[in-house]
Amino acid sequence: MDATRKANLDRAFNPQVIAVVGDKKITDYMWLKSVRDAKAKVVSVQIDENEIPGILEMGFENYPSLADVPGQVDYVIVAVPRPVAPRIVKDAIDVGAGAAALFTSGFAETGEEQGVQLQDALTQMTHEANFNLVGPNCMCLYHSKTGIRNSADQWIGEGGDIGFMSNSGTHATSFVMRARNNGLFPLKSISMGNSISVDQGDWLEYLGDDPEVKSIGMYVEGTRDGRKFFEALRDVAARKPVVIWKGGQTREGARAAASHTGHLASDMALWDAMIRQTGAIRVDTQDELMDAFKALHFMKPFTGNRMGIVAQTGGQSVLVSDAFGREGLTVPDLTQESYDILEPIVTVVGGSYKNPLDVSGSLTSIERGREMLDTLAADTNTDIIVIEASIGFISRRLERQGKTMDDLIDMFKEFQESTDKPFGVIATWNQDEAALAEFRIKIADRGVAVFPSFQDAARAIRRLREYYVTQAELAAGSQGPWRSRRRGRRH
Amino acid sequence: MDATRKANLDRAFNPQVIAVVGDKKITDYMWLKSVRDAKAKVVSVQIDENEIPGILEMGFENYPSLADVPGQVDYVIVAVPRPVAPRIVKDAIDVGAGAAALFTSGFAETGEEQGVQLQDALTQMTHEANFNLVGPNCMCLYHSKTGIRNSADQWIGEGGDIGFMSNSGTHATSFVMRARNNGLFPLKSISMGNSISVDQGDWLEYLGDDPEVKSIGMYVEGTRDGRKFFEALRDVAARKPVVIWKGGQTREGARAAASHTGHLASDMALWDAMIRQTGAIRVDTQDELMDAFKALHFMKPFTGNRMGIVAQTGGQSVLVSDAFGREGLTVPDLTQESYDILEPIVTVVGGSYKNPLDVSGSLTSIERGREMLDTLAADTNTDIIVIEASIGFISRRLERQGKTMDDLIDMFKEFQESTDKPFGVIATWNQDEAALAEFRIKIADRGVAVFPSFQDAARAIRRLREYYVTQAELAAGSQGPWRSRRRGRRH
Questions:
Q1: Which of the ends of chain A has fewer CB neighbours closer than 10 A, N or C?
Q2: Per the CB < 8 Å rule, is A250 touching B326?
Q3: CB count, 10 Å around CB of A111?
Q4: Is the peptide bond before A332 cis (omega within 30 degrees of 0)?
Q5: Is the model more confident about A373 or about A259?
Q6: Residues A82-134 pLDDT 10s
Q7: Cα atoms in the Cβ-side hemisphere of radius 13 Å centred on B381
C-alpha cells in the first residue's frame, strides 16, 4: 500500500466530514445512527423524496450528490442498490474522498452474471484511481477514538489498542462488543467484505504500521493475493501478535465462504503452515479468539510449561489436570518448601496429590487464598499459575465473612501485580448463570485473564506458550530458510 | 448385586427413617439440612454435648447411637471423624439399615497407612455383612422424588428420569443443579466416592434396572472390577442410553484421580474401546454431558447425517458449516422445490449458497422463521434441522413487532412437535450475557435442545448419530464377536 493510499485511509478513520449515501427508514437509518456520535460532521446524500424528511428530522443536512457536499469529504458510507453503487463510488473518487465503504451486497458472492460484472467494474475503477474501497458487501469501519462504527451498539472511547479485520460483517461488529465484555479495548475493526480494493494484505500492513495497535486479530475466509498476504503476515507478526481465525476450514465451510464473500478458501494445511512459519496464533472460534487476546493482554509472557493450580475440589482437580495434560502442559509436584508452608493451611495437602491444590475445606478466607497463590508463585517448579473460582461455592463462603466477589477480584488483581509469573482465573459453572456472567465481566474489566472452562484455559495457555516460544526462536534466527531469506533481503 | 442388596438400596432411596450421624455446626449442619425436606422422618445421632443444642433447636430428635433410634433406620448419613467411621458403619449394619453413606474422607485416597488400613477394615466389614456402603469420601445420595439430597441447594420434585453416578461429589451434586438449568430432570444421583462396597458395576446395574430411569450418565475415574463393570455396561447400554464422562484421561489427570478417590485410572484407549463396543456415549466435559442429555431427551432419534441449517448472517453460515463439516456431517443443497418456496421469502437465496439459509434481512417475523424451518424439514435432502438464534439481533427485531422471546420459543416448540426430524437451537453470543443465559434456561425448560455454540451442537449431534447408528447395528447383531458371545450366552 503506497503512502497516498495509506494517508487517505488515515483520513477515513479520522474524518472531518462523513457522508452517508442512501440510508433508509426501513433499516432505521442504521448508517447515519452508527456515525452520529463521531467526532466529525456527518451529512446525508439521498435523492429519494420519501426518505429525505426522516433524515432532516434527525438533524442531518442532506445533499443530492457527493459533489454537492461542501468541503472535503473524508469517509463515505454507501448503502445504495447495487446497480447504482459504481456511480456513487465514481463520485467518491471524483470528490477525492479518503475511502468509500460499500455496505451494498449482491456482487461476485452471488455467482450471478450481473453481480460479477458489477464487481469487476468496481475493481477496475478503484484500481485505476488508486482508491480505497472498503468492501463491498461489508459493515464498513470502526474506530473507537473517532467514533465511527459498524453499528450504533458498539462501544466508543479512548484507550483502544487492538486491531481487527474481518471478511464477515457480523464478526467485525461483534468482535468489538465481545472484546469489551472481555475487558479488552478494540481500537479499529474493519469489515473487509469481498475486499476487492483494500485487501487482506493491505489491511494487515495498515494495522501493523499503526503505533496504537498492540495486537491484531482477523477473521479471514480467503485472500486473492496469497503471496502479498504472506509477506505482510511475516513482516507484521514479527513485530506484534497476530491472531488468525480462518473461516472455511472444511469443504462445507468453504462452499459457504464462496457464497458469503466470493473468496476461495484454500486448503487449511496451507494456512496452518503459514501461521506456524510466521509465528502467528491460530484460533478456530470467536470464543478462542477472545481467550487468546485475554492471555496476550493480561498474562505476562512465558515459555515454561509447568502449571501451578488451585482447584476447588478433588473432582475438579482431576478435570483440570486432564485439561492441561491434554494440551501437553505439566502439573508437577511442588517443592518441599512449599509443602511446609501449605501443610498447616491446606487441609488435605498431606495426603493429596500435591498439585493441583484441592482446597475444598481450606479456602476459608481471601487471605488464605492469597497465601496459596503466593506459595505456588514462589515455587521454583511452576511457570504459570491458575486458580479455579467456583462462583456459587465461593460467594456463599465469602458472604458469611461479610465479603463480596469484588474483594476476591481485588485479591486476584493484587496477586497478579505481585508476581512475574503469568496468572489466570477459571470461572466455572454456577447455579446462577447471570451472576457468573457478571463475575466474568467484572474480573475481565480489571485486566485479569478469566477463562470459561478448564479446557478453554488449557488451550489458550498452550497456544500462547507456542507463540512465545516461536517468537523467541524467530528472534534467535533459528527458524529455517524463510527467516534467513528475509534477513538476506532486508539487510 | 443380589436381591437383598438391591432391596436394601431401594429402602435407602425411599426411606421411612433417615439418621444423620455426627453433623456439626461448623459445616452449618449441612447433612441435616440436605435431608430436612425429605419424605421421611429425619433424626440425628450425635454425642458431642456442644453440638446437640443446635440440632435440637432445628427441631430434630437426637439419639446417642443408631441402636437407640426407634424403629427401622433405612438410610444413614455418616459424617464422623475417620477413626470413628468403622464403628458407626458397624452400628448401621447391626441395626439393619438399607445403606450407610460415608461422607467422611481420609481413607485410601490419602495414601497414608492409617487411611489405607481403615478403608481395608470398612471393605472387609461391608463385604462380610453384604452391606451397602456408599463412599467413603463422598457426597452421598440424591433422589428427587423422596427428597434426599447431596446438598440442600438441589432441586427436588416429581418427574425425574435421569440417573447419574459419580466418583466426584462435586460432579454428583452439580449434575443435578446443571441438569435442571438445562431443562433436564434428574431422578437419582449417586456420589460413589471411593466405591469400596457398592461399586461402579453395581450402581450401573441398579440404575439400569430402575424403570423410572430413562438414561444414565456417569463421571468415573476408575473401577476396581473392570470385568464386572464391562458386563454391566454391555447389558445396560443395550437397554438405555449411557453417557460416560471419564476423569483421569491423561497422566496428569490420572495422578490427581489416584489421590482423589484412590482409583487407578486405566488407559483411556481401553475405556474408548469399551465405550465403542457397548454402544455407550463418550463425553469429555460436564458441558458435553449436558449437551448429550439434551440431544437424547429433546431431539428425535436419527441416523442420517444431512444438516438443514438456518443461520443469522453470512459470516455465521461459514462458521456453522465448518463446525458441522469438522464433525463429519454434511450440509447439502436443498431440493428445487424448497428453493421455489424460499426464493420469495429469503432475500439472498437466489445467489447464495443454498444451505445454510443466510437469513440476515429475511427473518422479518416469527411466521417467516417458521416457514423457513418447515421448508427445511419437508426437504428430502435433510435429516436434522438446526437454527441459530442470535439473541440480541432477534430480540430487537421482535420488539419492534411487539413480540418477545417467549413467542419465538413457542414457535420453536410448535415446530419441533410438528416434524419427525430432530431439531436443535444454537443460541449464540449476545452483548447482554445475562439475557442470553435466561433465554437458554427458558428454551431448555420447554424441552427444546439448545446448544451454546456451533461446535458444541455439531459435536453433540455427531455423537448422538454415532449412538443411534451403533444401537441399530447392535440390534441387527452386526457388531462383531462380543455381541455374538453375549447372544450365545443369553439365549
A1: C
A2: yes
A3: 14
A4: no
A5: A373
A6: 999 999 999 999 999 999 999 998 898 888 899 999 999 999 999 999 999 99
A7: 17
Instruction: Give the distance from residue A16's alpha carbon to the nearest chain B alpha carbon, in angstroms.
Output: 30
How far are the Cα atoms of A7, A123, A201, A220 from residue A271, in angstroms, in the given order?
Answer: 31, 26, 14, 11
B312 to chain A: closest CA residue: A170
Distance CA A72, CA A7 (A): 14
Four-CA torsion B305, B306, B312, B316, nearest 10 degrees? 60
Same domain, A291 and A315: no
Rounded CA-CA distance A39/A157 in Å is 11
Residue B48 CA to residue B25 CA, distance in Å, equals 11
- Which member of B111, B169, B353 has the closest CB to residue A255? B353
> The cell 419424605 sits on which residue?
B39
Q: Do B256 and A110 count as a contact with CB atoms less than 8 A apart?
A: no
* Cell numbers placing B86: 468403622
From the candidates A149, A174, A252, A321, which should be mutated to test the interface with B, based on the most B CB atoms within 10 A?
A252
What is the domain-level CATH number for residue B46? 3.40.50.720
ipTM over 0.90: no
Which one-letter amino acid corresponds to residue B178?
Answer: R
Tell me: do A444 and A318 sit in the same domain.
Answer: yes
Closest CA to A27 of A170, A151, A207, A160: A151
Quote the CA–CA distance of B294 and B292 in Å, as a whole number: 5
Q: How far is A128 from chain B (nearest CA, A)?
A: 28
Q: Across the interface, which of B178, B319, B455 has its CB nearest the CB of A429?
A: B178
Matching residue, cell 498476504: A229
Domain end call among B281, B298, B315: B298
Per-residue pLDDT tens for A161-186? 999 999 999 999 999 999 998 999 99
Between CA B84 and CA B104 the distance in angstroms is 10
Peptide bond into B356 cis (omega under 30): yes
Q: Which residue has the cell 456472567?
A: A437
Please tell me the predicted confidence (pLDDT) of residue B467: 97
Q: List A76's β-bridge partners, or say none.
A: A19, A100
Q: Do A455 and B285 touch (CB under 8 A)?
A: yes
Q: What stretch of H or E contains B307?
A: strand B307-311
- Is B339 found in the same domain as B265? no
A479 within a domain of the structure (yes/no): no
Between chain A and chain B, the number of residue pairs with CB atoms below 8 A apart is 208
Answer whether B219 sits within 8 Å of A315, measured CB to CB. yes
- For residue A323, the Cα-to-chain-centroid distance in whole angstroms is 24
pLDDT, position B437:
84
Q: Which of A249, A441, A455 sits opposite B326 (nearest CB)?
A: A249
Task: Identify which of B111, B170, B317 has the shortest CB distance to residue A351.
Answer: B111
Note whether residue B478 is domain-resident: no
Name the DSSP class of A306. B
pLDDT at A362: 65
Number of domains observed in the structure of chain B: 3
Question: What integer pLDDT is reported at residue A453 of this predicted model?
Answer: 94
Residue A429 structural domain: 302-473
User: In the structure grid, which three cell numbers stand for residue B153, read together?
Assistant: 441447594
